Amino acid sequence: MSESEGVLESSYVPYDSPFQYAEYNFEHTALELARSQWPNYDDQHYLRGCKWSPDGTCLLTVVRGAGMHVMELPSDLYSGDCVQTSRPIVPLMPAVSVPEGGLIYDYCWYPGMNSGNPATCCWLSSGHGGPIHLWDAFSGDLRCTYRGYNNQDEVEAAMTVCFSADGQNLFCGYKKNVKIFSTGRPGREYVEFPCSHQVSCLVASQAQPGVVAIGTYKNTIELVSQSDGSFRHLCKLNGHKGGITTMAFSLDGFRLYSGARKDKDIICWDLRVPGRPMFCVPREVNTNQKINIDLSLDGKWLVSGGTDGKVQVWNVSEQTYPSVHMQMGLHSDCCNGVSLHPSRPILATASGQHHSMDPLHHTRNSMQYENALSMWWVGPQQEDPDLLSAIIKAATHS
Fold it and tell me: Does CATH number 2.130.10.10 belong to domain 31-397?
């Protein structure tokens, strides 16, 4: 396949959702809908987060040493206001798998992804020692590559990648700069924005086109505005104890949420009055692993995983200093990925982490760890009347 074949056109393709707007109900325990499990080999196939596609039809995850996988949303979950508690857990099977061998640093969906338009169905990934890849979400084929080079004219791996809000550009974070590629022009053509520290996380604002938050491993966040192919510095945010690993803009663009490694605080920044945190909420993060956060499209619910396997939920629209609205122990190992479905009350989670070798057995096979991708219903639930009557009948006869 040539570099230009199958590449998206530069014009943004808006997504017309076939779903209703999501209404999350974090008042009951999450009901597990579907699950996929990876075995614990010597090289530990733990997951590295998960992300719903913008149209909500499928879920993308990366498994260390086992490539990238796209899971489709079960067909019975496309409609309906509630789910019966007796619904069986459906095994998730990859619809598309890409056996990428090296370590994947970061990945993201094309923001205009719409399953009704195959040209828009793709995602980006960046891995160790290689260029940035654009993958076809229907076939798993490689569409094209974007190559960044260092001062020695060697291909350099991007630590983090994201699309601009309109999908026309790629922002890619490197050791000393952010490189901006045009989505419709793969190859090695790009412009650079110098950074004083290695870039660890990037996120683009949907409400403020061109505004990008750049997180670094030096605990800082820099807000910049892109115009005419270059970046203009807006402000710098300081407050985290570790390197920035996850960020999320609110849909109105007024707030930025950020989390860092070995840092138990998620900080909310009010970008109308930058420089001072609006509030902080706690979570359990005691390793360097990337523990993702996510924000519902209406800006009401903030969710985060934790190294303790728990998912915490905050109603960030209620008050200035929100307390934990709900805490769910969904996994027995580290919950590193959380993703809220854009239009259905479904939460996706990913679990797993690196475990050191057992010093007694000199192997990792003697211990079992959870490496799972799960979908959870966080909307209204209904008891199955037939099951309930059967339970009552059995109790009466006993």
Answer: yes
